[in-house]
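Bug #2210: token dump truncated for Lipoprotein?
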Amino acid sequence: MKTRTKILYFSMAFLMLVGCADNANEETKAEPSVSENGSVVEVDGNEKSIEDTNDGSTEEAMTDSDDASSEKKVEEKDLLSQYSSEQIEYARVWLQLGPNQELDELNVWHIAAGEPLNPDDETSATYREDVIQLAGSRLIDGSVTYSGNGDGTINVYNVPLRWDGVYPAGEEFYTEIINNTKLVYVDPGDDKKIIELIKLQIVHN
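Reproduced locally. Full output below:
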């Protein structure tokens, strides 16, 4: 009888130990694991790490910023899209080099290669290339005479809108002007100011 009782007690104690062990295992499975970098990860794989979530937010913010910047550039480009490249060039050159920005009109003359620098002087040398002369309606507005290189730069000639002096000046005088043009990079400038100057342009053939 005592032997049976001991066996019964032993069996009950064993079953209790097994039950406690199962409970402990379930609690361990229920708790989320913590990675070495401090990110929380669910055991069943349903929860993303904190760092992954942060990375996703940062990338999304950077993408939004890039999109906004691209849209702004497109809008700025669209402001000038209705104008020709020549109109934009004339305005940019005057905005950067024009002596007087307070104009009532911006005149544009095309001077062909072979034309004299000073039509009033028979000893004048001639232009070796086609040039463009920009000027306001008054002498005080000044002028800009240049040729384009097609790469964003121009060659600026040091010639006045109206020649004053003693003539004939001699071909050497004019040749020196031709040989000493100034290479200038033309800045894009402010689009709104460019448009204002385009509206003042009067192109002469």
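Output looks complete on our side. The chain has two domains: 39-82, 85-204. Marking as cannot-reproduce; reopen if the truncation happens again.
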